[in-house]
Amino acid sequence: MADYSTTAHPYAKAVFELARDSGGYKAWSDALQAIAALFGDARVAALATNPALSRTDLAAALAQALSGKVPNEAVSLVRLLVENGRLPAIAAIAEQYEALRAEAERRVEVEITSAAPVEPAQQDKLATAVRRKLARDVVISWKTDPALIGGAVIRAGDLVIDGSVTGELERLKTAVVQ
């Protein structure tokens, strides 16, 4: 799969600015996800790459498929993407939009992986500590991985806090080897 991050950036930023100005962050999130899901369908992707189909016809077909499912502004975005040959970048646009939205809403998605299930009271304490450390609202997904032996690994974007026994053993191994 090609990397569309550079291509997606100006589109994601423009959509974000529209959403910010209208207060429609959620509506645009839903619309971008719907468009990405439509383009993710193998039949639609094949249609989009069919050289026998003009860009005008493709835009009309996609607009019809999305009519009533997404706002008119989102349909206009699809038409623009088709016209500029950028429709394959829609998943990257949606992803970058979500990152901009999360930053604006001071929200971060956090994944906490522990060796064993964490009790609800302990989850609340850990969530409070992470929220305080990151100074943001957090959306936490909890996972378990017995291979960690004990402790937990916390991932929030680029930040990784490895408090697992496996991580400690790796650090000890590295120190001994050096």
Architecture overview:
The chain has 178 residues and is of the alpha+beta class. It has two domains: 99 residues, N-terminal domain of the delta subunit of the F1F0-ATP synthase (Peroxidase, domain 1), CATH 1.10.520; 71 residues, no CATH class. It contains eight helices and four strands, in the order ααααααβαβββα. It has a four-stranded mixed sheet. α2 packs antiparallel against α6.
CATH fold call of the largest domain: Peroxidase, domain 1
State the secondary-structure class: alpha+beta
Which CATH class of the largest domain?
Mainly Alpha
Strand content: 5-15%
Strand order of the largest sheet: 2-1-3-4
Look at the structure and name the CATH superfamily of the largest domain. N-terminal domain of the delta subunit of the F1F0-ATP synthase
- The unreliable regions are none
Distance between the ends = 39 Å
Shape: elongated
CATH-defined architecture of the largest domain:
Orthogonal Bundle
Task: Count helical runs.
Answer: 8
Helical content class: 55-70%
- The number of domains is 2
Helix and strand sequence: HHHHHHEHEEEH
Rounded to an integer in angstroms, the radius of gyration calculated over CA atoms is 21 Å
Number of strands: 4
- For the report, how would you describe the main beta sheet? 4 strands, mixed
Mean pLDDT: 92
SSE layout:
Layout: H1 5-22, H2 25-40, H3 42-48, H4 55-66, H5 72-83, H6 90-104, E1 107-114, H7 120-134, E2 137-144, E3 152-156, E4 159-162, H8 165-177
Parallel strand pairs: 1-2
Antiparallel strand pairs: 1-3, 3-4
